[in-house]
Write the structure tokens for this entry.
Amino acid sequence: MNTLLETFSTSLRLGLTAFGGPIAHLGYFERTYVKEKAWLTHEEYSHLVALCQLMPGPASSQINFLIGMKRGGWAGAISSWVGFTLPSALLLYAFAVLAPKTHGPLLGAALHGLKLVAVAIVAQAVWGMAARFCPDRARTGIALAGLALLLLFGGAFTQIAVIVLGAAAGLWLCRGVTQASGSQSSTITAKTVWLAFAAFFIFLTGLPVLAAVAPGGVASMADIAYRAGALVFGGGHVVLPLLRDAMVPTGMLSDDTFLAGYGVAQAVPGPLFTLAAYLGAAAVPAGASPLVWGAVALAAIFLPGMLTAVAGVPVWRWLVGHPSAQGALAGINASVVGILGAALYDPVWRTAVLGKTDAVIAVTGFFLLEKWKIPPLLLVIFCLAAAIALRSL
């Protein structure tokens, strides 16, 4: 029980403080789960990042779910997901019900300050992972090639290509490299994997039937959310067009209502997929419960990603334990550095750093993390205070 409580409390702390979106979450996770808690090795964490980038769904939530499973089995996985998801889900649900018209200059300044937090967090993650995973010319070259491909072409499928090409390059260039790893114990059996695959496709094909039988009901909301979570690669920002195209043209929501929720989602910590709690509550028809609609939408959008994460764990175990895969793993680790480096520039730096003052705040935040070892919460306070003070001046 102590392990379960620790898993939940650690994940809840991340759910309350992990601002900046899925790429920034990778930095928070690396700092918390690898450096502070030592629940995973650096190599294990890199493998999880690569695996979840290859699957549909919210990568950061999948990583957090699998870390919870490694720590405490199924109970640990569920408690880890709840802790990371609940804070932002409650805030967005409350916004849908109580505050549909939140705006103002100070809110804009605060949103900008949170973006600067993400710059410092992601920069620290790139700095640390580059030192560990790119110790020679071959792996540095793999990382730089991946970074260049992503900056030139972008997109979730380019990320997948970078990981695959990194594995191939590692097999060729990194022969003889040994990747250290910790215990890969797991409660997931082959039967569980097949059940997860079966459940994934049953929901994917069955929910549209239920939605057609009862149009306009909660099954329609579940179908929209599940399809969005099942068919998207690249995380929360990529899922937004799918949700909008399914809800706005059909009249479930207006564009203004949809964009208002998206704007507030940028101000809350945790996964962006919790926007589904807002959308479900905001789209509720007369006489129905917004709480039920919000909860159904929230569960439905995360479920396919969790099912595919469970099904992918045997791949993770095989990669770490198979001797012939060590060179490929070295290449994958280097490609993950390239992915994070590209994300540090676009979208994190480009959307947050709009002038010299922003650059000073972001770089100062990086040094506060890297050299002074301040906790992320203090970094959030520093960046928020600086951004609001500058707006006031």
